[in-house]
Amino acid sequence: xxxxxxxxxxxxxxxxxxxxxxxxxxxxxxxxxxxxxxxxxxxxxxxxxxxxxxxxxxxxxxxxxxxxxxxxxxxxxxxxxxxxxxxxxxxxxxxxxxxxxxxxxxxxxxxxxxxxxxxxxxxxxxxxxxxxxxxxxxxxxxxxxxxxxxxxxxxxxxxxxxxxxxxxxxxxxxxxxxxxxxxxxxxxxxxxxxxxxxxxxxxxxxxxxxxxxxxxxxxxxxxxxxxxxxxxxxxxxxxxxxxxxxxxxxxxxxxxxxxxxxxxxxxxxxxxxxxxxxxxxxxxxxxxxxxxxxxxxxxxxxxxxxxxxxxxxxxxxxxxxxxxxxxxxxxxxxxxxxxxxxxxxxxxxxxxxxxxxxxxxxxxxxxxxxxxxxxxxxxxxxxxxxxxxxxxxxxxxxxxxxxxxxxxxxxxxxxxxxxxxxxxxxxxxxxxxxxxxxxxxxxxxxxxxxxxxxxxxxxxxxxxxxxxxxxxxxxxxxxxxxxxxxxxxxxxxxxxxxxxxxxxxxxxxxxxxxxxxxxxxxxxxxxxxxxxxxxxxxxxxxxxxxxxxxxxxxxxxxxxxxxxxxxxxxxxxxxxxxxxxxxxxxxxxxxxxxxxxxxxxxxxxxxxxxxxxxxxxxxxxxxxxxxxxxxxxxxxxxxxxxxxxxxxxxxxxxxxxxxxxxxxxxxxxxxxxxxxxxxxxxxxxxxxxxxxxxxxxxxxxxxxxxxxxxxxxxxxxxxxxxxxxxxxxxxxxxxxxxxxxxxxxxx
Length: 747
What we know:
single chain, 747 residues, alpha+beta, 4 domains, six-stranded antiparallel beta sheet
């Protein structure tokens, strides 16, 4: 029983020292003097403010991508004890003592460091040589732009990490498929592929390009799997199983196995990523529960679900809008800015600047600030009272209403007069009786857009409504045009013909609401200026908040004005551009996003060579000439799908984007080029060099080429780390292209 104590317990492990060494070098290159410079560097000013919002639990909206990337950076701040108190207002600002710079930059640096050994493993999983794998890792190690981007509080290195993790995991899974399907390792790598793809999408929307690539590759492999006759694993029984019943049983087994394979892939690559994507938003919304500066972009219901801000105003309001209710009406569209239906004493000018005439009625606008003139009273056209009666008479879908402006007691009106800025639409005004032949046309039919039944009651915040003019069938609409100075630059409201269809600019919701109790005008004005009582809260479901937030992120357009360092995709491939990230306030030390030009040009050349060779082999195979053995050809195709395809899907879509682009957008595509480069070199050596002499000469050329890449990396090191001040002559010597913007101080 105790025999095992008589012998030593021995544990053996296989350790790949090359992998350990590459990991160590990657960590050293990315973590070396990570806190330098202790100042805000380029887009750290952008991401830093979001980290502060996380630390303070303040809601924000960023249209650059889902929240997972921001949460990764915020995790670094949390681990470092950051309290969020720092003013992220300018590049170059010195960090205060409470900002844990090392911790904030740690996770992007780790992601960049781990991308080095990951490149090594990917090439090995593609069944290329150890030498090619080491070459890919070393290229990742010395590429200057990748080093710079991963040493700062930025997201590209994290995106690249998950892109590579997705590729590596799928290759591991694909190789397990040949040996041990449905084993523990098979499930692990398949699931990790889905997780990595979801994380890549969660970092930036650019991650969806790699995700789509992985889905296409997996779909092609699944298609081949359907036709695989060996899945039944009953090949040994074929000869003895000649009866029809046995053959039918074998077919059923094979169909079940194929179904299980397809189901496993669907769950891992579709369901799990979708669930994780929702989880990112769930955690994001749980963390950010306080009102913040981006609230007004969201709907009234969303704002009311946040602590503070609008929630303090709207809590405790009556839910059902009744005749006599006092309300503010917010445009659901929210463009160009969120605004509320508004009126004031001023009238439209008799004659516009273009010579057209107006009704000279009281102006109705949309005002982007809370104001007492935003209040309206929902009046029953059949009664004179402007107060809520007892018993309560709620307003329902299809009811006729009049909207009376609270402070001026004039009714919302429209008629066959052209709007000031939109002459094809009708003018909307508050009616003034001038005793002329222009009677009031102030009846509106209420339509609840998101109703569940035709008798639904109009609800505060929750109901999205339209007002259809009874006389002209036009609908109350925010045109989005700014009125001239006579309209105080407020937004134009028009009557749009209903036949032109539904649009969010015609939809409104009640934001603030109370039951009116004052019939006299003076008492009502005092009531409208009084605060609303606060005593309860109203919450949205997670799915409702997620849907709105996701939609706002997709349609929101940030200011895409031209930037000094913006560039076009054509400039990236040949490295005709750079970005000055940081300049020391007193010396010439500076940090630039500037790539290793030897690697960039070589990567583009390797891609071109691959495409030419692929087409050549494909044409010859069409003629039944097989230059490569079948297994080598399949490896060559898979390399093209993952590496050349990875470059294409991460680069070509930028030609279709109407946004400000920068050099760092090319880095994910560059990593796939780097993976392809040593593979192409090995292919040339193995299949195109016919003699040993040719292989020796080619190997010597490769060594010389790699030495030149190392030399360029070392030469550009002062601009990569920014830890050395160079003289003006040295800086000019580094300006290898006229388009490079190297900063030289003029003393």
